[in-house]
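Sharing a chain and its predicted structure for anyone who wants a worked example. Both blocks are below, sequence first, tokens second.
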Amino acid sequence: MYDQLEAVLQAEAFGISCSELHGFLCGVLSIDVAYPLQDSIAVLAPDFENVVFSPELNDKLSALYAYAKEQMTDPELQLELLIPDDEAHLTQRVTALAGWCDGYLYGLANAGLQDASNLPDDTREIIQDLSRIAQLDGADTGAEEEELSYSEVMEYVRMSVLLVAEELQPIKMSTEIQ
């Protein structure tokens, strides 16, 4: 899914990477599982009312939105970050992970999280960690320990996003698990 969507986004000069877009959608859906796709597009492409997207891009955006919504409401907690697979160079994956986190934080803000100071300490700490991860530049030496560190950071991000969603929507999550 990543490669196909990334190619379409680049071809149409959408201005955001596939990873950032998925992160953004997961961010807004962490706060509001009914957040409309059109509102997301309006935020990401402010001039979207004057832009005609190709049918392929419209289909891909709709599919990504459905995919993100399914993941953020999955009682099995099967969130999979949309970033390049393990065959891609570590630098590319780190850059995509940073973009994913940046998109996620942007999504939280656009869905209404303006002040994290009112959140529980753990949630506030996670948001601070995601902010630091969003600033990674992807520079690496390719060492095996960096690959392991990347895997650990990615799992931390994945689980942290699920915890934040649980904190921001405890009723949504508890009713779906029953």
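Comments welcome. The first helix runs from residue 2 to 11.
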